């Protein structure tokens, strides 16, 4: 039970980090390049 909860927490962190990184990369990509 505890191990599964820890795995879920880690997966949640990785998922959130991926979404944040993805959002940042899209914002950078959409910025007009000088």
Automatic annotation (TrEMBL):
Spell out the protein name for this chain. CRM domain-containing protein
Q: Which species is the source of this protein?
A: marine sediment metagenome
């Amino acid at each position: 039970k505890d191990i599964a909860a820890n795995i879920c927490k880690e997966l949640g962190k990785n998922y959130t980090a991926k979404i944040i990184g993805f959002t940042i990369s899209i914002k950078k990509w959409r910025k007009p390049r000088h």
